Queue: 2 jobs
Job 1
Amino acid sequence: MTQQQRTALVTGGMGGLGEAIARSLHDAGHRVLLTHARDEGAAAAWLAVQQGEGYAFQSYAADVADWESCQRMAARIAADGHQVDIVVNNAGITRDATLKKLTKDGWDAVLRTDLDSVFHVTKPFLDGMLERGWGRVVNISSINGLKGQFGQTNYSAAKAGMHGFTKALAQEVARKGVTVNTVSPGYLATQMVTAVPPDVLQQIVAGIPVGRLGQPAEIAALVTFIASEAAGFMTGSNISMNGGQYMG
Ligand code: CAA
């Protein structure tokens, strides 16, 4: 099956997993656009490093938690002449605390950034995918959306919600060449995970049958496959890659 060059948008594309996904899609021959929430200086420095390693990305500042900000980002992408074929909803945050200690701000920040963002970012690009008869939406959820996690009522709810979105939208667009899937990574060697208190993290790793954290590049390879021509029969799926930590 011939792999065509498409245009992909990766949210949170400068983060640990986002960067790996952006690079993998670029390696597969796609044009890759990123959203980021850094200041312009930090974003430019990051882009320069990538450029030096052969990765030409175009970046757009956006707050994925904010509808208006995403509308402006979509307008800038259109004004630059891009038609987005692949949306990877990767941007996400944690605000871990037991429900007893969780604040309203900690709940809202995670629900808006991790779940509302999926609506904010997918919606502006869906019509174009339907008109062109081809599209891929890949929602990056988490093992903790499947099994729940002590200290993550907010994150587990948001991540489980992403897959509800996936299953509903997959049905709406299946006949138009657009697939919608969820990827549920386990614990990866990224800053988000290494921020977990060391004793807690040690216990988590001890519970991973493969015996280690995952590498972002391993998840990225899966996302790139789902975004490919070859994956056209996969839709509404939730694909786990978690070192065997959860097999439900
Ligand atoms: N199961 C049962 N009890 C647990 C527990 C668990 N998993 N973890 C902690 N506890 C217990 C402690 O033993 C302690 O008990 P005692 O009071 O009897 O001593 C009690 O809960 C501590 O409760 P506190 O509310 O005081 O907890 P805390 O404020 O010290 O910290 C926490 C709680 C913030 C949740 C901390 O445990 C933590 O950071 N846990 C990690 C959560 C996690 O896995 N986050 C994943 C981040 S990475 C990610 O999300 C990416 C991805 O997709 C995988």
Job 2
Amino acid sequence: MLQPDRTVRSTCPYCGVGCQVDLLIKEDHIFRVEAPFDAAPNYGRLCAKGRFGMDFVTHPNRLTRPLIRKNLGDKPRQAVGIEGFREATWDEALDLAAEKLVDTVQKHGSDAVGSFCSAKATNEDNYIFQKFIRGVLGTNNVDHCARLCHAASVAGLQIAIGSSAMSNSIAEMKDLDVFIVTGSNTSETHPVISTFLRQAVVQGGAKLIVVDPRGIEMTEFATLWLRQKPGTDVAVFQAMAQVIVAEELYNHDFIAARTEGFDEFASSIMAWTPEWAESVSGVPANLIREAARTYASANSAAIYWGMGISQSVHGTDNTLSLTNLALLTGHIGRPGTGLNPLRGQNNVQGCSDSGGLPYVFPGYQPVDDPETRAKFEANWGVELNPEAGLTTMEMVDAAENGAIRAYYVMGENPMMSEPDLRHARHVMEQLDFILVQDIFLNETGKYADIILPATSFAEKDGTFTNSDRRVQQIHTALPAPGESQDDWAIICELARRVEEKLHRSHSAGFKFEHPAEIWDEMARLTPPFQGINYERLAREGGVHWPCPTPDHPGTPYLFEESFPRGKGQFSTIQFRPSEELPDDNYPFILSTGRVLYHWHGGTMTRRSQLDHIYPEATVEINPEDARQLGVQEHARVRVRSRRGQIEVKALVTERSPQGTIFIPFHFAEAAANELTHDARDPQAKIPDYKVCAVAVEPII
Ligand code: SF4
């Protein structure tokens, strides 16, 4: 058997489970990936992406030198391939990038720059990115893809309890008594978590309630499957709450001690009976009653949800209605009880924690709080902008109306992830300047003026924070390809040049030798991280924040004694229908999401051997719909919406309910977001990727 030259412990770069991996290296290639049996959170388990999806790091198309667009300044700018760029030295590319950013700030003001940090980059990369944007460019216009996946979970949880992180650790899953999984195709999106959840059912006898329109694999293990019509989640959860109140199944002591607003909430929901919910959602009233009784009578129960709940114009209401259930029953604040938005990207939790959001510094410290701002100003030695910045979607709007003139995009691919790509393209074409920093030339890079080549997770040190708030390390396993550099190092170089061109007498501080020093600076300014450092992470393998002191053990589950806002707040909610419903011209509902073998915009998995297993875009169609359309299994079909059209391969399957189709969003050549619309949740500003109206026709 092939023996490795070396084995390097790291963290999987795909999803928020944060599996620990051992990378076996031979001749500077990862030739095998193993999972250590003694390491949390995965204890020897890996999914297909972690096991077989790492070969993207040595793909021949990795970016190895800085690139500058040949036709710099052309308007409207066009998407170009690699032949549309010329190679440049780091000095030339960084000087030009600094000049363009400074020019934008001087001509149009700091808020004319919009920036996207990255849920795939490390905490240290993201801390330095937002420090540069806030402390040097002077704007809070910094956001990332959390806006497009769990912004509604964040908004709802902040309103109800004052914290948006997962309540429980992954380790608690196997001991569950009852749990609800909703809007999460867990076995494909968080496969290792799904194995612990299944273990709870199969070995532990736990009861699983699935609330989902699709016949996902988790339904095979479910005690109850509530198959609601897409976009009617609030009706189902409101009716469950109604049953709990009407039958007095609620936890009197918990409500009295830990919550507020119960009386108003209880009277507000009495009309929302299971029979009413059945008329709206299609879920039989008796199933709703049974689900409510099962959840309420459990000793310990938890709720897990994914983007099916959050990526909706009702996303905040969906989250609030789930939170109401936990507050009613007291299933929160004890081991194995809680509210758990399953985070998508490997470091989407950490990117938010590190200040990659427009209204908060690291650790969710508000930018508009004078005391907090004074702390960061004193530490960085610069004056900071007191106004919250724009969210991802607001930046798109601002770019369209000319208020934003330049984008800095690090490790994100908005030209795959934005809804209504035709509109997103139009916006990119109008910008004065686009700076992209990435490991491959992706769909967004094709619009860039300058591209800076970055290292991947396998070529640098740093930390990721997984979905259950566990800070874990990555280690350098391979040499950086060509001249690529770590994101934090690139930003530091850029920041120094921008400060110089702005004639700043004082630097905000960008001299670091190693990411450990960046972590230490962030931790010094961020109370929940103050007990975590690199030595401790190396010794313990990972630590759950909050961890305020070096002798604190970390916090696997939250809210034992109180919520960050004090008492939990019940919320009164009104069910609203979705924004774009089927009609005669567009008779199907389109829902989008992930499949097991690919990841988001496909930048990594489509350059791995996983692409051989799942090489093209598909659409799931119910057999009765397929029969009426005259569509055979594997036939090619055209899917049209009011925004655009794509061609995909049909999978005829009962997984999709009649009248609903499902398309994964990983395939640039048939991008599902050509079809979606940008209707948004009013509070969280997250677009609705789960309900829009489309037509399907066979290609003859
Ligand atoms: Fe990687 Fe997530 Fe799979 Fe674990 S479950 S191996 S973190 S993709």
